[in-house]
Structure formats: structure tokens, C-alpha cells
Amino acid sequence: MLRYVTTNPGKVREAERYLPDGSVERLDFDYTEIQADELGPIAARGAREAYRHAGEPVLVDDAGLFIEGLDGFPGPYSAYVEETLGIERVRDIAADLDDRRAAFRCTLGYCDGDDFAASPDPVDRGDRGAAAAAGPGDGDRGGDDESGGERVREGGEALPVKLFEGYVPGRIVAPRGDGGFGYDPIFEHDGETFAEMDTDRKNAVSHRGRALEKFAEWYADR
């Protein structure tokens, strides 16, 4: 059984669209969210910690809004910025930019305590935190603990984590729409904000859905 580590049942329902019936369940576990400038190390650290807690295959996600004209801000700090500044203030800051392009990104971290079969994507063997099936312009992600302390099993054997990234491009606009949550009202993709889309439409193009699609294809061979 695969455990999706989240307090949000909606994420599990979205995962069920891509995975076999009955193969995924929600795990409510408060893992440590480290401070990092990229999503990969956060998801990797969380996946290792959750696996040690559950003793079963786990899936952890981290997501954020990356505004190109602000060098990717708020990125991994999106939840904190939403809580402290609010989405309208973020939109006001972006409104003064010449470039208001943005992207929602989601990184999934998978850990099951075993080595991974060979695949085209690099795998964490202890010398890197993990590697991403990345969106445009991205490459491998660095580790979360340069000392290696978070990377090894008892006895010094590496604890692999595999990362999968979903990416959806768009731009920052004035708030529109009554649906969704978080930054959805100010993020426009293909002429609609995420808050204007119904659930099926949003899930079909979402960054999490795209990451889940990559993961499901790889996981089918596990």
C-alpha cells in the first residue's frame, strides 16, 4: 500500500485518478519541512522521514508558485507568503513587473526503503538528494543534508528517494474566479485562472496532476 502523506483528502483523490484502485491511502504525519530554496530537498527530506515513521512506501509533495520576474519568489515559501502577505499583495508586487510570467510547480518525493530499478532518471545513492523528472529549464536537485546524516539507513546504506516534478506555466493577473484556493485566483493558464476552472479542468492541467502522471508511469514497474 502506498501512503500519501498529507492532511488534504483532495490530494489523495487526485492521486487515485492516476493510480490503481485501492493502491493509495492518506497518511497524516507531520514531517519536518526544512528551509530550502528549491522544492526537491524539502520533498526528499520529508519522504525519508515519513518512510521511517510508516515503514511502508510513502509519497510526499511540496509545491509553490514561482514568479519569473521575482527570481522565482515566493517558490518554496509560498504558503508562508500567502499567510503573511496575502495573494493580493503578491499580485500588486507582480503588477509592476514587465515580466509577469509564472509557474506552479509540484515535486513528489517517493521512498520505499529499497534500491530503485534502473531508469533514465538519476536516483539518490547517498551522494545526491534525489533527481527530478523536471519541467522546462530544470535539472537535478541537490541534497538536503551535506553531511549525509539524513541519507543513510542503519549501517550506512543509502536510502534512495525519487523525485517527480510537475510544471504548469501561466501568468499573474488580477484576482478572478470563486473556486480553488491559495494563489488560484491570480494565476492564469490558457486564458482562465485556476479559480475559474472546475475541478476536472483544473486537475487535468494541474502541476500536481502532471507530477502524479510521471510518478504513476514509473511506479507501475515497482
Helix/strand layout:
Layout lengths: L1 E4 L3 H8 L7 E4 L11 H16 L3 E10 L6 E2 L2 H7 L2 H9 L5 E11 L20 E2 L28 E11 L14 E3 L2 E2 L5 H7 L1 H13 L3
Keywords: Hydrolase
Pfam families: Ham1p_like
InterPro entries: ITPase-like_fam (IPR029001), RdgB/HAM1 (IPR002637)
Describe the structure.
There is one protein chain. With 222 residues, this protein is an alpha/beta fold. The protein has one domain (2-219): Maf protein, CATH 3.90.950.10. Helices cover 27% and strands 22% of the residues. It contains 6 helices and 9 strands, in the order βαβαββααβββββαα. It has helices spanning 9-16, 39-54, 78-84, 87-95, 199-205, 207-219, and strands at 2-5, 24-27, 58-67, 74-75, 101-111, 132-133, 162-172, 187-189, 192-193. Strands 1, 2, 3, 4, 5, 6, 7, 8 and 9 form a 9-stranded mixed beta sheet that branches. It starts with a strand and ends with a helix.
